[in-house]
Amino acid sequence: MLRYAYFPGCVAQGACRELYLSTAALTQALGIELVELKKAACCGSGTYKEDSQLLEDTVNARNIALAESLNLPLLTHCSTCQGVIGHVDERLKEAKEEDPVYFEKVNDFLKKESCSPYQGSTEVTHLLWAIVADFGLEALAQKVTRKLSGLNCAAFYGCYLLRGQKFLPYDNVFQPESMENVFRTVGANPIYYSGRTQCCGWPLSSYSTPESFKMAGKHIQEALEAGADCLVTPCPLCHLNLDSRQPEVAKVVGKDLGLPVLHLPQLVALAVGVSPKELGLDRHVVSTKPVLEKLGL
């Protein structure tokens, strides 16, 4: 059985609760055990380092140390969390060899808070990589009980999943195929469009909202024009900009949109027989009914 120290992040426990629910349902269906890190702190989503790199490294060294204490890899379903925590892990592993003074400085802060020291003894991964690289697509295919035949799925990778870390052993940063391969495995049709690896606009939304919405609108329109029935994203922050704010996005771009946006575990869990209700598919701002109707659900 695959076991992970589970870092759900903030958004999945609040604004995107359906991501938390669907991750639990999917991993249970696949026989993957998640040990939730109840004492973990927010990764900072890249904002801590604007004030202090040391702050970002210390907070996330503590998060990783919690996983290390369980002797498990840290898994998250948020690509922003994965990018931030994964990059901290890379940086501190490098510092352990090349800058031991800084490495010990981080651990000194952890000791002052009676936390376990960061050792650099585990890995940080995303649910997508766990499915593709650890569980395996062949094993996933054997779990499929409800083929998503005829469903046209457009991946929205976003920024952090592909570019948050220096090294990405699971896919090509510029021409990724991991999500499309998952789509094929569960019987869906992958849809390609130019915006699938670009930023959703969320980081701009707090200070340049119109520009943020224009970016999101451009991606949604491109996916619609390419024939997508839905977008599928591995990031809850992308989901917020593409789904929760889609009605506002539509007003800014001056076009009707109405494209459902699914979280990655929702899509995969549908294929392995989990009910739409269990996956929180009724919680989305843009209705997922067209997707379910196309699947006869």
UniProtKB/TrEMBL annotation:
Keywords: Oxidoreductase. Its EC number is 1.8.98.1. It holds the Pfam family CCG. The keyword Oxidoreductase applies. GO terms for molecular function: CoB--CoM heterodisulfide reductase activity. Residues 4-85, 154-243 form the Cysteine-rich domain. This is CoB--CoM heterodisulfide reductase.
